[in-house]
Amino acid sequence: MSPPGTGVSEEAGEIRRFWTGLGLPGLIDVHTHFMPERVLHKVWDYFDTNGSLIGGLEWPITYRTAEAERTALLRAFGVRAFTAMLYPHKPGMARWLNGWAADFARRTPDCLHTATLYPEPDVETYVREAVAAGARVFKAHVQVGAYDPADERLRRAWGALAEAGIPVVIHCGSGPAPGKHTGPGPIARVLARHPRLRLIVAHMGMHEYEDFLGLAERYDQVRLDTTMAFTDFVEDLAPFPRRALPRLAALGDRVLLGTDFPNIPYPYLHQLRALERLGLGPDWLRAVCHDNAAELFGL
Ligand SMILES: [Zn+2]
């Protein structure tokens, strides 16, 4: 593992060889974190404590650099489009985060304008405002937010997003550590009410992989992102069951590259190699690393 500043161009070269070898114009990464620096530093400090939300794990952040360096790095890797995943852990915070994200998207044209939400009285209003302002993807974090996604206060917000066809990347699996409302049950209740909601289940639903594959099989607007899944780090902790590989192959049009950049304890390239070694072939990789997201976001 090479710290940023050394070996970066070498890693960028290898990443570019990966996607040019597949005949792609670059990568699209639907799960990257950008947020106000003060908030991001708090997140990094949390990772340093090996806290319970990250399962008490040793989690060194590979790309712990200034914002401009992080966007430059994604461009050097050939990531054509990425997101600014950000999320509140308490009420009264989402609207402020959405304001920051709108500004970030304005000054970062390759970032898909991202917004977030939380169960609170004005949620429907600010979700509709974010959509009107051009938000193209939302992030919801059921574990950190510690809320039930089927909370009545979110009902009309989910409805608005389903109606607008805006994808929502949602951390709702019980990895790396479970929350009160994580797991397939609560989110299945949301989908029962809003079957057209375009949920992108983060981390392949880790570690309830097969339950979330089942939701994607049942609802054709449910997708999954690859974030951290299949890497050595996660395979040690919550291995993806080999018996589910044929289902993963069959859902090749509903799996999207996500990485958790910059908050990852290994180089970016490792996520790509982890997908490659699944052995599902170049067509699957092309769809996952670029084409599925290009179609979903009209890129
Ligand atoms: Zn993430």
What does this structure look like?
The strands form 2 sheets. The protein has a 6-stranded parallel β-sheet. The chain has 13 helices and 9 strands. The chain has one domain (8-297): Metal-dependent hydrolases (TIM Barrel, Alpha-Beta Barrel). The protein has helices at residues 8-21, 37-48, 67-77, 94-107, 123-132, 142-145, 155-164, 184-193, 209-218, 232-237, 245-250, 268-276, 282-297, and strands at residues 27-29, 79-83, 111-112, 114-116, 137-141, 168-171, 199-201, 223-225, 255-256. With 299 residues, it is α/β, with parallel strands linked by helices. The mean pLDDT is 94. α5 (123-132) links the parallel β4 (114-116) and β5 (137-141). Helix content is 44%, strand content 10%. The relative contact order is 0.15. α5 packs parallel to α7. The structure holds zinc ion. Zinc ion binds next to loops. Keywords: Hydrolase, Lyase. InterPro entries: ACMSD (IPR032465), Amidohydro-rel (IPR006680), Metal_Hydrolase (IPR032466). This is Amidohydrolase.
